[in-house]
Design goal:
Helix content is about 45%, strand content about 10%. By secondary structure, it is α/β, with parallel strands linked by helices. The protein starts with a helix and ends with a helix.
């Protein structure tokens, strides 16, 4: 076998390896891939024999990636992701432009998605693929072109454009408010406070703006505005 051939593993073996690495189970990987557990094991052994490296450490109860397996799994996930994206592009509209866009969950659902039909009608040659991301990420590694994100324009190696400013104010449900006297900002500090992951200093800034010290007690944490609003 030539060196070039030896470095190009079977795609089925890579899919089996990625599934076991992600799920941590040969049985779960076999169910996901609609294969027998023995077939998945043979695919993993094929890779290990091909490279002369043990990819998993096995015992009677658990299976976990070896050191070599952890390094290889990261590269395999990226490679399979690129293949999936390429296949999706071919099947969806091979002659069109494609924009891979990261969005904030609630912002995307409530504000952006209602505008998409008009955009699609006016730009039929552009296909938009959406993924949700709350925190920062590497554009090149995630294979994303742009992001609608909250924060300062200090994203490394990115051009930033301000879309809209926001006004932040305390809110409370009528049911919770019933029977609770809130006459001044200081009264809010004695209530349970809900915190957003993307606004870690919001309450501190608000209380300081009122000339008060922010409460130091714990509060519930949320990553999405939708769940915070329901709470």
């Amino acid at each position: 076998m030539s060196v070039q051939r030896r470095l190009l593993p079977n795609i089925s073996a890579l899919a089996a390896f990625e599934a076991v690495a992600r799920l941590g189970s040969f049985t779960a990987a076999a169910q996901e891939l609609d294969l027998t557990q023995g077939a998945v094991s043979r695919q993993i052994k094929l890779l290990e024999d091909q490279f002369g490296r043990r990819l998993f450490e096995r015992d009677s109860r658990n299976v976990r990636l070896s050191t070599s397996g952890e390094i290889y799994a990261e590269a395999v996930r990226s490679a399979l992701g690129q293949l999936r994206d390429a296949a999706l592009g071919l099947m969806s509209n091979r002659h069109s432009g494609m924009l891979n866009l990261a969005i904030l969950p609630t912002f995307g659902t409530r504000w952006l998605m209602p505008m998409i039909p008009d955009f699609v009608e006016n730009n039929p040659d552009i296909t938009i693929n959406f993924v949700t991301r709350v925190g920062r990420f590497d554009f090149a590694r995630e294979r994303l072109d742009a992001a609608i994100h909250y924060g300062l324009p200090d994203w490394p190696e990115a051009d930033s454009t301000l879309l809209v400013r926001e006004t932040v104010a305390p809110v409370v449900s009528p049911e919770f408010l019933a029977g609770r006297a809130i006459a001044a900002p200081a009264d809010i500090g004695r209530l349970p406070l809900l915190h957003m992951a993307t606004r870690p200093g919001a309450w501190t800034e608000w209380f300081e703006h009122q000339g008060l010290s922010a409460p130091t007690g714990p509060g519930m944490q949320f990553e999405q505005f939708g769940t915070a609003a329901q709470a």
